[in-house]
Design goal:
Blueprint lengths: L2 H21 L1 E8 L7 H14 L4 E5 L7 H5 L7 E2 L5 E2 L1 E4 L2 E4 L16 H13 L1 E2 L3 E7 L6 H9 L4 E6 L4 H16 L2 E13 L6 E2 L6 H9 L3 E7 L1 H9 L3 H4 L4 H25 L3 E10 L2 E2 L8 E8 L2 E9 L6 H7 L4 E5 L3 H9 L3 E5 L6 H12 L1
Parallel strand pairs: 1-8, 1-9, 2-6, 2-8, 4-7, 9-10, 10-12, 13-17, 17-18
Antiparallel strand pairs: 3-4, 5-6, 10-11, 13-14, 13-15, 15-16
The structure holds adenosine-5'-triphosphate and magnesium ion.
């Protein structure tokens, strides 16, 4: 076998493992922000621990390769990866319901400075998901570094059905940051779960009551303006820092505190938002319809020529965004559609074998009798028939 073929065989194998693993995880949530230090890792850890305390099976994946903070925040720097009976490595067990993984336990010594180049980051993150056994999970929470670099991009590509959870603080500048994050999500076609406002108001270290020292509350308005869900706000609380440093997340350490209760509310909202988004797909309230095209203005009815696709995001029978994507020549149609997170495809009535194959892979099929129609018109007709 040539080196090139061997390499692609390894990648194919890894792709298969990745898909298998991802199919066992019900909801995937990537915590992101435009700006550093807004509390992503804090939010990720408390959400993961909070969900696990409610008997969900949870995974927490730290894809921050330069500044991993999850092991410290969990107080689990000494824990090691587990070896499964079949020889595979499993994520690190933190509690019966919570597993996590970070680059930190895989590095030789604490504080080892590693310079990661883009492609290595990508393959490390893919291995975190594909090569490590996570088992069946209700939630995988992913803690990303700030911004829209290689790490969130790799997560978006590797886990096409992940939702983004955007964290912001109540400062003016964060508006621009949230907009950047939303733009990123639109570009990589990641659905947005919602927005959390962290460090919103202040909990007095002496009496434990909320004080309005700082500006707060802009998050809700911002979410409304941007048309995304507001998942709640978390106050500034010195115990967050303290519990983070001691490795005992506040939701577990002080469950009665107002801050832990604020996290509880955020978690309740996350549970209902994920269920809702899942249901929207099942009930076809949310659809991403792929339409094979010959040119942006012309539908393609011949499956031999399927290489360009228009993608329409539909919510409640209204068109949100349209995009065009090219399928790589050597990629199978079903793999391409899954990578694009297409829920549906519009095919010509004669494409019966393609339709059968895609249906068996969970992609729903709409049929049209038209041959050379404009794809936008086809979608409008489809929506008006359904509406
Ligand atoms: N609600 C809060 N109250 C008080 N301190 C907080 C709160 N949220 C986060 N912090 C503190 O702010 C600091 C930054 O938080 P954290 O590391 O979670 O942010 P981050 O967004 O993950 O940062 P980075 O962008 O570097 O990954 C930490 O010391 C953390 O303990
Ligand atoms: Mg962080």
């Amino acid at each position: 076998m040539s080196v090139k073929k061997e390499k692609s065989a390894i990648l194919d194998q890894q792709d298969k493992k990745l898909k298998e693993q991802l199919s066992k995880i019900k909801h995937k949530i990537m915590v992101m922000s435009g700006k550093g230090g807004v509390g992503k890792s804090t939010v990720a850890v408390n959400i993961a621990v909070g969900l696990s305390l409610q008997d969900f099976m949870v995974g927490l994946l730290d894809v921050d390769l330069h500044g991993p903070s999850i092991p410290k925040m969990l107080g689990a720097r000494d824990l090691k990866l587990t070896r499964r009976p079949d020889g595979r490595l499993g994520a690190i067990k933190y509690s019966p319901n919570l597993k996590f993984l970070s680059i930190e336990p895989l590095l030789p010594a604490e504080d080892s400075a590693i310079i990661w180049r883009g492609p290595i980051k990508i393959s490390a993150i893919r291995q975190f998901i594909g090569d490590i056994d996570w088992g069946e999970l209700d939630y995988l929470v992913i803690d990303a570094p700030p911004g829209t670099g290689d790490e969130p991009l790799t997560v978006a590509k590797t886990i096409p059905d992940a939702y983004a959870l955007i964290v912001t603080t109540p400062q003016e500048v964060s508006l621009i940051d949230v907009k950047k994050s939303i733009k990123f999500c639109q570009k990589v076609k990641m659905r947005i779960l919602g927005l959390i406002e962290n460090m919103s108001g202040f909990i007095c270290p002496h009496c434990g009551k909320p004080l309005d020292l700082f500006k707060r509350g802009g998050g809700q308005k911002l979410a409304e303006e941007m048309g995304i869900r507001f998942l709640g706000k978390i106050p500034v609380d010195p115990r967050v820092v303290d519990t983070g440093d001691r490795g005992k997340p506040i939701v577990g350490a002080y469950p009665e505190s107002l801050t832990a209760q604020a996290f509880e509310e955020v978690i309740r909202n996350i549970i209902s938002a994920t269920e809702e988004m899942h249901k929207e797909v099942l009930e076809e309230k949310y659809m991403r319809i792929a339409v094979p095209i010959a040119t942006p203005q012309k539908f393609e009815a011949n499956p031999e020529k399927f290489d360009l696709f228009a993608l329409y995001d539909i919510e409640n029978n209204k068109l949100l965004v349209k995009d065009v994507a090219k399928k790589p020549e050597n990629q199978a149609l079903v793999d391409f559609l899954q990578e694009q997170v297409a829920t549906h495809i519009l095919l010509h009535a004669s494409n019966t074998s393609v339709a059968d194959e895609l249906t068996s892979q969970g992609i729903r099929v709409f049929i049209t009798e038209e041959i050379e129609a404009n794809p936008d018109n086809l979608i409008h007709t489809l929506l008006s028939q359904r509406g």
